[in-house]
């Protein structure tokens, strides 16, 4: 079995589709996928039972744990963030908070962001800057 390399949007989408089963996608959670300098997946770090309403500082705290660990272990590493929750694919205020916190914390720690994705039971979309304003 080869280690997945998340070097294209298609590779990221395919990896998340395989890695997250329908049960995962129906629960509120965040999965941090830590990658090396070549975008090879090193580890998945799931955080389950995330509340529906999350304070921006809480988002930043969660992300900083993984971003700082990645920065210490692989200076050129990257992180992929997958948000899971029930419901539709419309980006919510909470999804926007996760997106903004991911980019702010990772910039502060010198960690590349490979993307922030939203996965619900029936949909999968990447969250883009236009979605976060």
Strand ordering within the main sheet: 2-1-3-4-5
What count of helical segments does DSSP give?
Answer: 4
Give the N-terminus to C-terminus distance in angstroms. 40 Å
Shape: globular
Which percent bin holds the helix content? 25-40%
Tell me the total number of β-strands.
5
Give a verbal description of the structure:
By secondary structure, the chain is an alpha+beta fold. 38% of the residues lie in helices and 25% in strands. It contains four helices and five strands; from the N terminus they run H-H-E-E-H-E-H-E-E. A five-stranded mixed beta sheet has the order 2-1-3-4-5, sandwiched between helices. The radius of gyration is 14 Å and the shape is globular. The protein starts with 8 loop residues before the first helix and ends in a 7-residue tail after the last strand. The model has no long low-confidence stretch (mean pLDDT 94).
Brief sketch in words of this structure:
With 133 residues, this protein is α+β, with helices and mostly antiparallel strands. It contains four helices and five strands, in the order ααββαβαββ.
């Amino acid at each position: 079995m080869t280690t997945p390399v998340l070097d294209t949007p298609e590779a990221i989408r395919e990896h998340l589709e395989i890695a997250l089963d329908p049960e995962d996608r129906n629960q509120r959670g965040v999965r941090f996928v830590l990658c090396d300098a070549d975008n090879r997946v090193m580890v998945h770090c799931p955080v389950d039972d995330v509340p529906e309403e999350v304070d921006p500082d809480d988002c930043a705290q969660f992300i900083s744990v993984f971003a700082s660990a990645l920065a210490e272990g692989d200076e050129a590493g990257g992180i992929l963030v997958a948000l899971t929750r029930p419901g539709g694919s419309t980006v919510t205020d909470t999804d926007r908070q996760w997106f903004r916190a991911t980019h702010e914390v990772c910039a502060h720690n010198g960690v590349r962001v490979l993307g922030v994705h939203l996965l619900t039971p029936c949909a999968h979309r990447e969250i883009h800057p236009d979605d976060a304003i």
